[in-house]
Write a structure and sequence with these properties.
about 400 residues; alpha+beta; Umud Fragment, subunit A; rod-shaped
Length: about 400
């Protein structure tokens, strides 16, 4: 009974080892595939750690959403990962890329997979066969495989040699002579005594070393490891950023009509001057630029009117006899000169106005002494356009 039990167990080991070597070594080699061991658990429950996955080459164009692929984490480096494809896209250059994620992960992988990184797609898997890779470091695994394989193959050779010697020792006389073995002569036994029964040692079964060799070959399975690395995603909230504002006011108003500069019945040589206040009602500093143009019922009046702009200037009464003889004190940014119908820069972006700050400009209009007689009763309208520009860091 014990002999039959041992024989049955041996056959089970033989068939099991043969099946494992077939699916883990022979089939991948014949098909040009590569076996990998899943080292981590982010592909659970489909491919838990210790699973042997057989990966065969595939073109990226043939990969679809739902396929499980093995790819290099960085192109040209040996480290690989095995994750499921959850999206397909294209770069701005028209290159197809894959979006991947571990089945047990909450977030997709940070970087898309390019064609140069793709090693293949999972063809089939065998649970637990690669468990050795998970328990040992790569260096320990390599040393153990070398020692185990060497010892087992040596043991197989010893079994074969013992079987060969045992078979020669129990050859019939005729066959032993043919093979050069000495002929054994059995001594005569007395007739009255029955010859004691002797059982010859059973030759080693030819499949015993095969089992040992197959078990040794299994140590070579799963020599390559593939990560199914974990990742996660969390949200950090609570920060509030409020955008600033840029708000330019003129005399405290969004839209301002400068009636204070109106002057009726101006005569050649007379002038008027007024101060204009610009306000920064926003939260960001800005610079101010001003352009000006003018229209007149007669071009002669427009050409005879002289305009002066003085930043931070004040009005000065130049004559006590003539009330309409005013000027602006300070350094002029423009004029005195005539304006045209086209916009002319009268103040460049040279002054910064801080939030809640202000800037004053003084504007003077003077009719030139040489104004022609035909300018009488004509009207003149200057227009000033103020532009505030944010100050960049």
């Amino acid at each position: 009974m014990a002999r039959h039990l041992v024989r049955a167990v041996s056959w089970v080991v033989l068939l099991g080892a043969t099946a494992l070597v077939t699916v883990a070594v022979v089939v991948p080699r014949v098909a040009g595939a590569t076996p990998y061991t899943v080292l981590t658990g982010s592909m659970s429950p489909a491919y838990p750690a210790g699973t042997l996955v057989v990966v065969r080459p595939v073109d990226l164009a043939d990969v679809r959403v739902g396929d499980v692929v093995t790819y290099q984490l960085r192109s040209g480096e040996p480290a690989v990962a095995t994750h499921r494809v959850v999206g397909v896209g294209w770069t701005a250059d028209g290159e197809k890329v894959l979006t991947t994620r571990g089945d047990a992960n909450a977030a997709v992988d940070a970087a898309p997979v390019r064609e140069v990184q793709l090693r293949g797609e999972v063809w089939y898997s065998v649970p637990w066969v690669g468990r050795l890779n998970v328990l040992l470091s790569p260096e320990q695994h390599q040393l153990l495989v070398q020692l185990a394989a060497g010892a087992l193959f040596l043991y197989a050779a010893v079994l074969l040699l013992r079987g060969w010697r045992s078979d020669r020792g129990h050859m019939p006389a005729r066959h032993a002579a043919e093979h050069g073995a000495p002929r054994r002569v059995e001594p005569r036994r007395p007739a009255r005594r029955r010859a004691a029964s002797r059982t010859a040692p059973r030759p080693t079964r030819p499949w015993t070393p095969v089992v040992v060799a197959l078990v040794g070959a299994l140590g070579l399975v799963g020599g390559l490891g593939t990560q199914a690395y974990w990742n996660d995603v969390e949200t950090v909230s609570g920060a509030t950023v409020t955008s600033g504002s840029l708000d330019l006011l003129v005399e405290g108003q969004q839209s301002y009509t400068w009636t204070a500069l109106d002057l009726a019945n101006i005569a050649p040589g007379e002038s008027t001057a007024k101060v204009l206040t610009l306000n920064n009602a926003g939260t960001t500093p800005f610079t101010v630029s001003i352009t000006a143009s003018a229209t007149a019922s007669d071009v002669a009046l427009r050409d005879a009117m002289r305009v002066t702009v003085v930043p931070a200037g004040t009005v000065n009464q130049t004559s006590a006899v003539y009330p309409r003889a005013q000027s602006c004190t300070g350094t002029a940014s423009f004029g005195p000169a005539a304006l045209t119908s086209s916009a002319t820069t009268v103040l460049s972006q040279s002054v910064t106005v801080d939030p809640w700050g202000s800037l004053t400009i003084c504007v003077r209009l003077q009719l030139d002494l040489s104004a022609a007689n035909e300018t009488q009763s004509d009207t003149y309208t200057p227009t000033f356009t103020l532009t505030a520009t944010q100050v960049t860091p």
